[in-house]
Every structure is written in C-alpha cells, then in structure tokens.
Design brief:
The complex is a heterodimer of chains A (about 110) and B (about 110). The relative contact order of chain A is 0.33. Chain A has strands spanning about 5, 10-15, 20-25, 30-35, 45-50, 55, 70, 75-80, 90-95, 105, 110-114. Chain A is built from no helices and eleven strands. Helices cover about 0% and strands about 55% of the residues of chain B. Chain B is built from no helices and eleven strands. In chain B, a hairpin with a 5-residue loop joins strand 7 and strand 8. Classes of the chains: A mainly beta (about 110), B mainly beta (about 110). Chains A and B meet through strand 5 and strand 10 of A and strand 4, strand 5 and strand 9 of B.
Amino acid sequence: SAVISQKPSRDICQRGTSLTIQCQVDSQVTMMFWYRQQPGQSLTLIATANQGSEATYESGFVIDKFPISRPNLTFSTLTVSNMSPEDSSIYLCSVEGQGWTEAFFGQGTRLTVV
Amino acid sequence: GQQLNQSPQSMFIQEGEDVSMNCTSSSIFNTWLWYKQDPGEGPVLLIALYKAGELTSNGRLTAQFGITRKDSFLNISASIPSDVGIYFCAGGGGSNYKLTFGKGTLLTVNP
C-alpha cells in the first residue's frame, strides 16, 4: 500500500481565514480523493483530484470553498477557504489501491475553527 | 445516492469475547472494504472483499461478501484491548471508483 503523508496534522484557525492541507504520496497514483469527517461522523467525499484536470466535486461541495490542486502524480492540496466553526472536521487524503477498488488514507488533518 | 446501514452503532464487550458487525445496502457493490480508525489517525484497511460469497480472514478478523452483493459482515474473535476503535464498512468498485462509507461501529473492549 502507498505511504501517504498529510500536513499539517492539526491546526487551530481563526474564522474567515483559509488553510491549505498538503498530501504527499510515495508513489505515483492516478486519482487522489479528499474526504471530510465531521466530529463523530463517517467519511464524506469532497472531491476527486486527477492530474491535469479540474477536480470533480461531490454534491454540496464547491470549488470556491474547497479549491484543490493536483500538480503531479504524487501530490495534492486542499484549501478550506473563509473558514467558519462548521468547517471544524478531520480532512483526509486518500489514494486508490489495487485495481482501483481499494483506498488508502493519510493520517488526516484535524482542523478546529474558532 | 447509495447508502450503507452499519450496525451496531457501538459495542461494549469484555476482553476475549467475539464481536460481529455488519453493513447492508439497497445497492449492489462490487467491492466491500472494512477499515479501522484509531483516535487521531486515518482509517486503515483491514480486509478487502472482491467476490460475492467470498470469506476472507486476516488474523483474528473474518469478513464475508454477501451473496446478494448488498451486505457484508466483519467478525473479530477473542477481542483484545487494542481492538478498540471505530470500524467502518465501505462499498465500492463502481465505474466512478468512489467509496460509500457506513456510519461506523465504535468498539470498546474492557480488559
């Protein structure tokens, strides 16, 4: 399985500011995924990021709020823009595994907005 | 959209006991995955199932892909304190490569 590193691991941010989360993978992958996990909840897919194209966002998530970059096959960033306390969550980077039927996750970024 | 019903929501057991949890769906999945999430960490893949009826083991863990492709269960035998965490099922394998996650089962093991 791929080794996925996320930065930062946690942050406390002021409302109205933006935070960019980085995801680095130790091997080239076609698709990278960004998930949100609200406190005590399951994982919700925010968007799918492929290199060389715009990210594909799920219903309820928009590019202005969660801009994503995918400059190469081993790296992606997710920005949480104009944050409010409702954005306090764990944000997880994921990559596809064997036959694109599995997914592996980074350790997550725990974001608290005050 | 697709939804997974995972049960139970939480379990409190004594060390040494066996545990069973399951997921059901109204939709068919080509893949069933089981993950464990420890506090402050991302989910870790425990078992992946690829064929209807498949029964797969990973140490004390056993999981099965339901014959209808709409359900899966995970069993943990002889639980130990480090089994504590949240267990998630996920269905996938569709053309869009996305996963649908259950709401999780919080497992507490009393030593």
